[in-house]
Amino acid sequence: MDRSEVERRVSRAILRVLKLPPGEVTPEANFIFDLGADSMQSLQLVAAFEEEFGVEMDQEAALAVLTVASAVDFIKAILDSRG
Predict the structure, then answer these.
(1) How far is CA 17 from the centre of its chain?
(2) What is the chain's Cα-based Rg?
(3) Could you list the active site residues?
(4) What pLDDT was estimated at residue 61?
(5) How far apart are CA 83 and CA 79, in angstroms?
(6) CA within 20 to 30 Å of 22's CA: 28, 34, 37, 76, which one?
(7) Residue 83 and residue 67: Cα distance in Å, rounded?
(8) Segment 65-76, tens digit of pLDDT
(9) What is the pTM for the complete model shown?
(10) pLDDT tens digits, residue range 11-62?
């Protein structure tokens, strides 16, 4: 899966979980400071990404991801490692 497809699907999951208007989600946006995610929503985001991409993530590592671009990189690495 190419990076732009991962980015599109990550953004879609973020919009759904955080109930944000589309323009709010940018690659440099921080989940907590820019998008307003609290700890429960952060867990919901991890679950949404797992569901969206059919992967399992190390929860601690996933929660350490702070920006949209970092989430895209994190998920892309998981997908690439699966072959």
Answers:
(1) 10
(2) 12
(3) 38
(4) 96
(5) 7
(6) 76
(7) 25
(8) 999 999 999 999
(9) 0.94
(10) 999 999 999 998 899 999 999 999 999 999 999 999 999 999 999 999 999 9
Length of the chain: 83
Please give the Cα distance from 39 to 8 (Å, whole number): 23
Q: In the block, which residue shows the tokens 């985001």?
A: 45
| Rounded CA separation 65/1 (Å) | 20
The secondary structure of 10-69 as a DSSP string is: HHHHHHHHHT--GGG--TT-BTTTTT---HHHHHHHHHHHHHHHT----HHHHHT--BHH
Set out the domains of the chain in order of their start, with CATH numbers. Answer: 3-81 (1.10.1200.10)
Q: How far apart are CA 8 and CA 71, in angstroms?
A: 12
